[in-house]
Specification:
Number of helices: 10
Number of strands: 15
Strand content: 25-35%
Largest sheet: 6 strands, parallel
CATH topology of the largest domain: Rossmann fold
Structural class: alpha/beta
Number of domains: 2
Shape: elongated
Strand order of the largest sheet: 1-4-3-2-5-6
Order of helices and strands: EEHEHHEHHEHEEEHHEHEEEEEHE
CATH superfamily of the largest domain: HUPs
Distance between the termini: 36 Å
CATH class of the largest domain: Alpha Beta
Length: 331
């Protein structure tokens, strides 16, 4: 997949295209269906398939930091889009000036002159341009005059509710990561670099943890989770804690993952944590021994969860061996 950051990179290059446009936060099942439809039509017509998206997210420009946390930041979003098979993804810088464009001005500049669009595919609730006036009816009218067809995808539903970024965000923030998986088509993940923490897990408790310096915005509800820890595209079974470690009186929220049967060094490495199921809420224990016993029980339960076929993500290699912990001192 070619990634372009300006329309100038593509002007005069694409003779004809099928385009889908949107923010694609989460690249969930609805987005996947939309991108898949665009790719199939482009192949059938001998055209170039293009996904057009924006960075930063338009809401971040218009509302500032008063936006909900986004499900996927740009790096992961591009990875997930690429997995759907488009030829090109165009990432336009979203500015207040762009927000002020009329639908016709945007369509002429980017879709017609820049991408030579022949067919445009949009989600059921998509609207563009100043005041979101570029809805389906407006785009159909513009297409009729400028020589492209517009198709609107009906809502994708699951469990009698529409699959949406808002619904997924609410589930993740409620700790219902298992319920979010069908909507995403994968387990929710966070990523970041392993940094030095308080070093209590290994020295005090006997369960070394990888302390994650997050780059993602959306973090599941505090608590203990069965997880897969991805290191160099290999999944390792683990258990993660999100919270303040109340037994030790911490204030800041942290994400720590204990990797089962791991004896290597993860410091300064970039890892991903895939959240499979929430095991329990975070709580304060009366003693270190009580905390140690509960962590051991959490690890056993996480291992049982991760051994179930439904807990295995597709498309990533697994470490060999059972999802149980031998008490190794890996960091």
């Amino acid at each position: 997949m070619i990634v372009a950051r300006t329309i100038q990179e593509l002007e005069g290059v694409i003779a004809g295209s099928c385009v889908t446009i949107g923010n694609f936060d989460g690249v969930h099942l609805g987005h996947q269906k939309l991108i898949g439809l665009t790719c199939r039509r482009a192949r059938a017509l001998g055209l170039v398939s293009v996904v057009l998206t924006f960075e930063p997210h338009p809401l971040r420009v218009l509302l500032g930091r008063a936006t909900p946390p986004f499900i996927t930041l740009l790096e992961q979003k591009l990875e997930l889009i690429a997995a759907q098979g488009p030829d090109v993804t165009l990432v336009l810088e979203f500015t207040r000036e762009m927000a002020g464009l009329s639908p016709e001005a945007f369509v002429r500049r980017y879709l017609v002159d820049g991408l030579n669009v022949r067919e445009l595919f949009i989600g059921y609730d998509y609207a563009m341009g100043k005041g979101r006036s570029g809805n389906y009816e407006t785009l159909k009218t513009l297409g009729a005059g400028l020589g492209f067809r517009v198709e609107r995808l009906e809502p994708v539903t699951l469990g009698d509710a529409v699959v949406s970024s808002t619904r997924i965000r609410d589930l993740v923030q409620a700790g219902e990561v298992w319920e979010a998986r069908p909507l995403l088509g994968r387990f929710y993940q966070v990523r970041g670099k392993v940094v030095h923490g308080h070093d209590r897990g290994g020295k005090l408790l006997g369960f070394p943890t990888a302390n994650l310096l997050l780059i993602d915005e959306l973090v599941p509800k505090t608590g203990v989770y069965a997880v897969w820890v991805e290191v160099d595209r290999t999944l390792l079974p683990g258990v993660a804690n999100i919270g303040t470690n109340p037994t030790f009186g911490n204030a800041a929220v942290s994400v720590e993952a204990h990797v089962l049967n791991f004896k290597g060094d993860l410091y300064d490495r970039d890892i991903r944590v895939h959240f499979v199921q929430r095991i329990r809420s975070e709580r304060k224990f009366e003693s270190l021994e009580a905390l140690r016993e509960r962590i051991a029980a959490d690890i056993v339960l996480a291992g049982r969860i991760l051994e179930e076929p439904e807990a295995h993500p597709a498309g990533t290699a697994y470490a060999s061996g059972p999802a149980t912990d031998s008490g190794g001192k890996g960091r």
